[in-house]
UniProtKB/TrEMBL annotation:
Gene: purF
Domain Glutamine amidotransferase type-2: 20-244
Family in the record: In the C-terminal section; belongs to the purine/pyrimidine phosphoribosyltransferase family.
UniProt protein name: Amidophosphoribosyltransferase
InterPro entries in alphabetical order: GATase_2_dom (IPR017932), Ntn_hydrolases_N (IPR029055), PRTase-like (IPR029057), PRTase_dom (IPR000836), PurF (IPR005854), PurF_N (IPR035584)
Organism (species): Teichococcus rhizosphaerae
Cofactor binding annotation: Binds 1 Mg(2+) ion per subunit.
Amino acid sequence: MQPLPSTNPWDDDDGFHEECGVFGVWNATDAAALTALGLHALQHRGQEASGIVTLSEKGGFHAHRGLGLVGDIFGDAKVMAGLKGRCAVGHNRYATTGETALRNVQPLFADFEFGGLAVAHNGNLTNASTLKRALVRRGCLFQSTTDSEVFVHLIAISLYANVVDRLIDALKQVQGAYSLVALHDGALIGARDPMGVRPLVLGRLGAAEGGAYVLASETCALDIVGAEFIRDVEPGEIVVIDNNGLRSIKPFGRGQSRFCIFEYIYFARPDSVMEGTPVYGTRKRIGAELARESHVEADVIVPVPDSGVPAAMGYAAESGIPFELGIIRNHYVGRTFIEPTDQIRHLGVKLKHSANRPTIEGKRVILVDDSIVRGTTSKKIVEMVRQAGAREVHMRISSPPTTHSCFYGIDTPEREKLLAAKHDVEEMARIIGADSLAFISLDGLYRALGHAKRDAGNPGYCDACFTGDYAIPLTDLEGHPERVPVLLAANGQ
């Protein structure tokens, strides 16, 4: 799905942003409330907008969508009372460029010959523009600017008889990364792209709910509704859940799995389990590996909260240096009442983070963070720690240098704006003002994930943001070389 803009004037967009999370439930009492809870657990995957579509027992669909956080949109009892039914799908959206508009909020809904269909999509299609041009020439009228609407029109023009076959027909025409949940009056459907880049898990509620099934982007969303984790939806798999139970369809054959490696580093909630691997423990192992690779003498290990905390804990345990919360995060930052002039905006980082002076004054500090994107936030953090009296500031990053943009569902700046794409590590250290800077190596990251090293022939993860190894074709970019002058060459295309 294409992103929309942040409207927070304090946001310098120095970071990665997951674009969305999906949730679906089949045959449960108060499905809308369960979906709202699931979306609340997935709030970290999208904070710009949210929506729920339900299917009532009489066959009618009910929908509510809004801009903002889940609690703001679905905290009204009247809204929830209008979302009747035992089946529902929901969607959280993150957006960073383009117009913020209600028409782009998912789940998308359309009436077809076979009945209504609601679709929620996590990911990004790399041939959406190419398909859209062809669909418009056929007379399709697009109502939004999201690439997710391509699914709706491909399903509409398919010549297959039933909705599942039409969906398979549509999926065989798209390229890119996607996890889908779709709801029609006969079934709840979940699907992952053939390489499994984006996550999707299957769970089941207890006997009190009649064994209702749940689909979600992460296991933390199963936990909040009390659903038992069954398994991950497999790459290239379509699961169809109806009143007869669950069936699996695998129309794409077996291919190489390329699960997004950044889910382990940053995107997923720490209490989630991804592809059978607990995220929290993985992040601690990454931190320990980082300490083994690039340790420097220091007095205290300080995480850049919140995403740097588990890695910093692992670093501290491996190095034997005390772990301290030398930076405190304000979790209640929103839109400010202060007009953000250039002078005031410069202080904006202090709205989100403040130095805990007694823990760092006069000390040699190792800062642990998950990534450096543009470098502007890292520079402000280092400066803030120095102003709090740190004698030395060393930055350690729990991911390899980010040298390439992501085109598979993560919002990243253009490559020319990525600090690591233009500078070596020594230059980056000078730019952000650190005494030293080090990133975990690519092989070190793979070791933390349980591999001896990265296998270039079959890495098992999508790590294109570090390597330029784009496993899925970038069809829409092939006609626009000015956007990614080195990107396609890096992929051997």
